[in-house]
Specification:
Blueprint: H1 3-20, H2 29-43, H3 50-57, H4 62-72, H5 78-81, H6 111-125, H7 129-142, H8 147-159, H9 163-176, H10 181-193, H11 197-211, H12 217-256, H13 267-273, H14 288-292, H15 295-305, H16 308-315, H17 318-326
Helix pairs in contact: 1-2, 1-3, 6-7, 7-8, 8-9, 8-10, 9-10, 10-11, 10-12, 11-12
Length: 330
């Protein structure tokens, strides 16, 4: 049975369910019956065929499948941008497990898909990540958006350093079943590897919440690692802000001091950086005042004072620093 016929059966089932759960009233029953008959006749399907209906929607419903779509719409994956989802290792048709359990239900799972998953697990154990990805993909082609298969493939992608692909699979897995905590762990790992420490921390936090009882040791360790990295990044950001303030102060001091005509910087400040004052060479040092009167040195000094980065580079050179310190005499 092709996809269009399965969709037609899913729509018929949705209409029936809407009558039963009160979404539609009994006044609508006759119209719904006519609509179901028209759909069945047009697509040549039989809604009373239980085997056909099971093949069409499995243990799911059109509403739950659409719910996953709503969570994932806008995400660019190979299945939405390429010509062949099978070749690009992406599922092409939504299918999600029923909610309400920490582990996705395997009731009604496809034996062929399960076989591919088992082979993928064996490939992972043998560290043959390329084969594992291919095998999990085959399972997903049979049972698309199965969170277990997606989560397993995310692990294989991470192991093969394909972290962006791992993140996509993990995000799809948690959208399909937020209670499947392994997917949150794999999303946390992928985000951390991509440099998104905050996003990683959030994923691990979700995993801890769904695990309950404070979370597993592994989930908590992932959370603490991501949290530590976030704190480090915040400290680094604060340090950069402080450096920017220092640079701004240095520029202000260079331009607003008791400088000479034409906007020249206060060269005595530069002299102070080299350990000297404005007077003659006390203590055996050179006469800095005479040096300051040298036009060539004044031009060089102006460039340095207007470019703190250049000054920092110069002063970080041990030999030049030693020369500068010698100006201080003693």
């Amino acid at each position: 049975m092709d996809s269009k016929k399965r969709l037609a059966l899913a729509i018929i089932d949705f209409l029936s369910t809407s009558l039963k759960d009160g979404t539609l009233t009994s006044d609508d029953a006759e119209s719904i019956e006519v609509a179901q008959t028209c759909i069945a006749d047009t697509f040549h399907v039989n809604p009373s065929d239980k085997a056909a209906m099971q093949d069409a929607i499995g243990n799911q419903s059109l509403l739950s499948i659409y719910g996953v779509y709503e969570k994932l719409k806008g995400k660019s994956t190979a299945s939405t941008t390429g010509s062949s989802s099978a070749n690009e290792a992406r599922p092409s048709t939504p299918s999600v497990p029923s909610s309400g359990s920490a582990k996705p239900t395997q009731a009604g799972s496809n034996p062929e898909a399960e076989a591919y998953k088992s082979k993928g697990n064996s490939a992972m154990a043998a560290k043959d990540y390329k084969s594992a990805i291919e095998l999990y993909t085959k399972a997903l082609n049979i049972s698309p958006l199965n969170p277990v298969y997606l989560s397993n493939r995310a692990a294989a992608y991470s192991a093969s350093q394909q972290h962006a692909e791992a993140q996509t699979d993990a995000e799809m897995a948690v959208a399909a079943d937020p209670k499947y905590t392994k997917a949150w762990s794999r999303l946390g790992l992928a985000r951390f590897a991509l440099g998104d420490a905050k996003g990683s921390m959030e994923a691990y936090q979700k995993g801890i919440e769904y695990e309950g009882n404070g979370g597993s040791d592994a989930m908590k360790k992932g959370y603490e690692t991501a949290k530590k990295r976030v704190e480090e990044e915040e400290k680094e950001g604060g340090s950069m802000d402080a450096d920017s303030d220092d640079i701004g102060s240095a520029r202000s001091a260079g331009g607003a001091g008791a400088g000479g005509a034409g906007g020249m910087p206060d060269l005595s400040a530069l002299a102070g950086m080299f350990g000297g004052g404005g007077g003659g060479g006390g203590g055996g040092g050179p006469d800095l005042s005479s040096i300051m009167n040298n036009p060539m040195f004044a031009s060089m000094a102006q460039n340095l004072m207007s470019n703190p980065d250049m000054m920092n580079n110069i002063m970080s050179n041990p030999r030049l620093r030693q020369m500068a310190e010698s100006f201080g005499g003693g």
